[in-house]
Amino acid sequence: MAPLITHLFTADPSAHVFNGKLYIYPSHDRESNIPSNDNGDQYDMADYHVFSLDRVDGPVTDHGVALALDDIPWASRQLWAPDAAKVGDTYYLYFPARDKEGVFRIGVAAGTAPEGPFIPDPEPIKGSYSIDPCSFVDDDGQAYLYFGGIWGGQLQCWNSDTFDPNGREPSGNVPALMPRVGCLSADMRSFIGEVKAVPILAEDGHPIGADDHDRRFFEAAWMHKRDGIYYFSYSTGDTHYLVYATGDNPLGPFTYRGRILEPVIGWTTHHSIVEFKGKWYLFHHDASLSNGTNHLRCVKVAELFYSVDGEILPVEV
């Protein structure tokens, strides 16, 4: 499967359909001399490009820089995986970045076109933290923001309302660290009420355990809805699977259902799922364009299929 974009290194693709076209909001990898480590310092992205397609097998348009690090008053570095949403006539770009103290927060920027440019709010979303925002607007108009990522994403540092730089991922016979979700206000710029953990359960109804690395959440939350079922998918991170769970409420709980994608070339796995012109697609990335350099990745797409019972069938790439 060939990369969709070859003139830039891109990753973490969030795909949405706006105005009958497919838009991709990826992170923009760049080459650097920063040594690789578990905090992900080598992923030193500094801007976002937006891409669009009229059809999945057609040419890809690069709309240029939609938002740059220098435009964001509160951010210091590392514009990691973003997402986008539309409410009314306004488009919103959600993005993580380190603040001036080195703590990851989630910001929001707004624009009048799906390709931007986007004007960022002067401060991050109050109560936000960690990485990998996923925006989801339900059929009733209520919008949600899912987020969280372990290790460099700092989710393990937020077991309370304060940041603990010495926080550790749980281990042993205890529940795994769960992603977070907040209900968004009507203006899409703040949370209504408290941010909550997203419960992900094993088939027996108990929370997935901390040592269940093949199934527990690590990063890359994504939500989509099909036939009234909420599909919460995510990356298991250090085991490199894309997996999913289902539920009947956008706040959960979600019950683990299975794998979507096996490990790919490169260390990370991050994705989105979208319906376009009557078909479903999985957007993801690997490091094939850079011959396996983990922080220089490329976006790819594959058609996604469901069983008659609503199960996602494993994707072969």
3D structure, described in words:
- This protein has no helices and 21 strands.
- The chain is mostly beta strands and 317 residues long.
- Strands 5, 6, 7, 8 and 9 form a five-stranded antiparallel beta sheet that branches. Strands 14-18-17-16-15 form a five-stranded mixed beta sheet, with no helix packed on it. Strands 1-2-3-4 form a four-stranded antiparallel beta sheet, with no helix packed on it.
Task: Spell out the key features of this protein.
317 residues; Tachylectin-2, Chain A; five-stranded mixed beta sheet
- The first-level CATH class is given as Mainly Beta
How many helices? The count is: 0
H/E element string?
A: EEEEEEEEEEEEEEEEEEEEE
The tally of structural domains comes to 1
Quickly describe the structure.
This protein has 317 residues and is mainly beta. The chain contains no helices and 21 strands. It has a single domain (9-304), classed as Glycosyl hydrolase domain, family 43 (Tachylectin-2, Chain A, 5 Propeller).
What order do the helices and strands come in, and which of them pair?
Elements: E1 9-18, E2 21-29, E3 47-53, E4 61-68, E5 75-77, E6 83-87, E7 90-99, E8 104-111, E9 119-120, E10 134-137, E11 143-147, E12 180-184, E13 191-197, E14 200-201, E15 219-226, E16 229-235, E17 242-247, E18 254-261, E19 271-276, E20 279-286, E21 298-304
Parallel strand pairs: 14-18
Antiparallel strand pairs: 1-2, 2-3, 3-4, 5-7, 6-7, 7-8, 8-9, 10-11, 11-12, 12-13, 15-16, 16-17, 17-18, 19-20, 20-21
